[in-house]
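One chain given next:
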Amino acid sequence: MYNVSIADKNFVKKASLTYELSILLGIDSFFYLIYDQFKNVLFLKEYELPTNGNRKAALQNILINDKQLQLPYGKIKLGHTGTLFCLIPNKLYNGEVSRPYLEKVCDLPSEHLAFVDKLSTLKVNNVYSISELDYNVLSSYFPMAGHYHILSALILGAKAMSTLLEEQTLFINVDKKLIVILLFDKEKLTFTNFFKFSNPNDFLFYVMLVFEQLGLDPETLSVQISGKIVQKSKEFELLYRYIRHVQLIPSPSYFHLSQEFSEINQHAYFDLFSLNLCE
């Protein structure tokens, strides 16, 4: 079942080899974006995935039956959601094997694979794990695609936005019962982590915990919100009560969205849009 499906009038199937495809696999979602060489968004679609059912069958069903995913594309990027990661400066990363780095800081499940995204503009490497099931299913359909971590996309997306904002900006991306918090001082990443929450009060607790531990001022700091959250949600209302400068993040300037996409909550796809920045 899909929740969103929008096609721009300029989308032409026969021209797909000149397009790029980005897919982001979430905890309970599968969504993709198709855009041309000028970064005009041509197609956006989102599916729900079961959280307690047969995930592999659900993924295969989408990949087999979605007509847009049967087309050939000039470049394909696959994004994965996962909470196990560590950021390693270039000078401390030997570039050989990724798994030992993760095993030193977390309990890495045997059914997870370890990868690294090189974030060259920040001179850091994001070493992370993803489900072997997810990787194998997507790789079987897109063997030449690049695989990236959602945190890498969010870091690069937030960095691009931070150059246009205040000296310090806190970014919060919301997924189902999962938030990613990033703090940028202009273009410098100074903090990031994942937090799992079960209710709105949990959500607020983790955000305010970051404020307290980092000595941030809720009266002055700018907070940009993205992901699965709306202004009328309890989570947003709580943030707005305790933090003065809170807003939904605007759509990134490096993409062009036509009138067909004006009715969607564009902030909900900031992670998917940011996947374009991964290399």
